[in-house]
């Protein structure tokens, strides 16, 4: 098919899209040479995002919905069977029907052990076919769950459009891609681009093969540092994802700087990291380099409530959701290893950062100095009772049963970590315990103490303290 034919199909579709449903059998009559309706349909599918049209079940095309994306989400209980079967099909191609047993099973288990050890030591990982399969077995289920939770929150906050152009940097074996595809309603339009140079792209390509109508996928086999997200012909992206890849980049902040420039004016950059101490703290460090000096600002969860203030605390901050069911493929791999759980990974714990360039924040609140004390000045009110606003940045961190509940707080100005310690629960302060990760809380009459052992401030919440969710 020549470019002239494609252009004629585009022009006719553009003209008729608001008049009536686009029927490929009708459109062919307006195109020189009358190409086969199947050819017309393929062009409409390929050009759907630029034309703003979606395909219906009867094969016709209508204008895509405009406005914000609305999703139906109730949490993640398990990794979808269809994706697990696709992964096990790949494992069967690699190692036979009993890929989890014998020499092949031992080889895969040893590679997963090596991946985990290298990760803990901060060493690079070689992404060959076996490593990609190891990631798919061990990491894909929880990465899928993590991405689905965060993406659903972005949609609920109105940050994602119904016609969504996405760039997934370091896409790996496909956690964010599959989660996003499953979240979208049938009439949404997705133009998905993945940047992944390794053998993981082969797994991703297989998993995305049957993406269905109204989803266009393209995989760019390039390094994140070398891929050019901007340029004369480059699109602006509504969402750019860095999923569990920042720790693998030589200069993560510089790379993020480049990609921020590829965001649409109301676009969002989402960075995800595992919840372990090193990667979660590194995420906050990179966030501060990119956001507190421009060009982006933090939407959440670590909102800068005080104007012209930036945090300098350690901030090991991460969210946690309910575990998912043990995937069959993980159980099969784990059983020959005496069922110790070494190859089972069902925890859904993650650090994340949401950046934007339009200044929008998750909590559009500015504290009043006449009422609220900034955490940056905590040394001035140690042993005093004060009022302040703070974002809840952890679940209960108490390390032993029966200990006072403990929560990390932040207001975007803190130079040292602040922890709320619930010493006396009451109906007046129950919001501290029941608030979700990332919620904004108002503290009234809280006692501030210095914790010399932890080199942090304790915000003591007792019977005299009132804690409310701030609106």
Automatic annotation (TrEMBL):
Domain DUF8157: 6-56, 376-469
Family annotation (InterPro entries): DUF8157_C, DUF8157_N, Methyltransf_12, SAM-dependent_MTases_sf
Gene3D superfamilies per the UniProt record, alphabetical: Vaccinia Virus protein VP39
CDD domains in alphabetical order: AdoMet_MTases (cd02440)
Sequence ranges assigned to domain Methyltransferase type in this UniProt record: 167-269
SUPFAM superfamilies hit by this protein: S-adenosyl-L-methionine-dependent methyltransferases
Protein name: Methyltransferase domain-containing protein
Species for this entry: Haloarcula vallismortis (Halobacterium vallismortis)
């Amino acid at each position: 098919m020549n470019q002239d034919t494609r252009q004629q199909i585009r022009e006719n579709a553009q003209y008729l899209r608001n008049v009536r449903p686009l029927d490929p059998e009708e459109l062919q009559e307006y195109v020189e040479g009358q190409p086969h309706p199947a050819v017309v349909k393929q062009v409409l599918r390929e050009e759907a995002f630029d034309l703003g049209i979606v395909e219906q079940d009867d094969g016709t095309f209508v204008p895509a919905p405009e406005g914000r994306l609305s999703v139906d989400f109730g949490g993640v209980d398990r990794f979808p069977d269809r994706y697990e079967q696709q992964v096990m099909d790949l494992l069967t191609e690699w190692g036979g029907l009993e890929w989890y047993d014998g020499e092949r099973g031992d080889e895969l288990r040893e590679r997963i052990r090596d991946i985990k050890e290298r990760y803990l030591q901060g060493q690079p990982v070689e992404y060959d076919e076996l490593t990609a399969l190891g990631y798919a077995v061990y990491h894909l289920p929880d990465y899928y769950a993590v991405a689905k939770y965060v993406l659903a929150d972005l949609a609920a906050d109105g940050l994602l459009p119904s016609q969504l152009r996405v760039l997934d940097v370091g896409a790996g074996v496909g956690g964010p891609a599959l989660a996003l595809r499953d979240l979208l309603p049938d009439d949404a339009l997705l133009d998905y681009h993945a940047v992944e140079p390794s053998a993981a792209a082969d797994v991703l390509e297989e998993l995305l093969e049957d993406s269905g109508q109204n989803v266009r996928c393209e995989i760019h086999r390039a390094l994140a540092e070398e891929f050019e997200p901007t340029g004369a012909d480059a699109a602006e992206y509504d969402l750019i994802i860095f999923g569990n890849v920042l720790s693998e980049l030589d200069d993560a902040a510089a790379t993020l700087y480049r990609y921020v420039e590829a965001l649409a004016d109301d676009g969002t950059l989402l960075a995800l990291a595992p919840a372990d101490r090193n990667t979660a703290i590194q995420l906050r460090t990179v966030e501060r380099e990119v956001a507190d000096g421009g060009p982006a600002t933090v939407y959440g969860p670590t909102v800068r409530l005080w104007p012209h203030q930036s945090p300098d605390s350690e901030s090991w901050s991460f969210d946690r959701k309910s575990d998912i069911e043990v995937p069959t493929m993980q159980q099969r791999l784990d059983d020959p290893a005496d069922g110790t759980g070494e190859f089972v990974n069902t925890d859904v714990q993650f650090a994340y950062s949401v950046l934007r360039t339009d200044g929008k924040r998750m909590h559009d609140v500015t504290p009043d100095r006449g009422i609220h004390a900034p955490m940056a000045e905590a040394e001035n009110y140690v042993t005093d009772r004060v009022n302040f606003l703070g974002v809840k940045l952890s679940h209960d961190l108490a390390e032993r049963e029966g200990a006072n509940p403990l929560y990390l707080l932040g207001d975007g100005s803190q130079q040292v970590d602040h922890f709320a310690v619930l010493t006396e629960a009451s109906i007046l302060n129950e919001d501290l315990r029941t608030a979700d990760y990332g919620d904004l809380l108002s503290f009234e009459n809280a006692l501030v103490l210095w914790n010399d052992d932890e080199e942090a401030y304790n915000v003591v919440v007792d019977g005299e303290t009132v804690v409310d969710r701030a609106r």
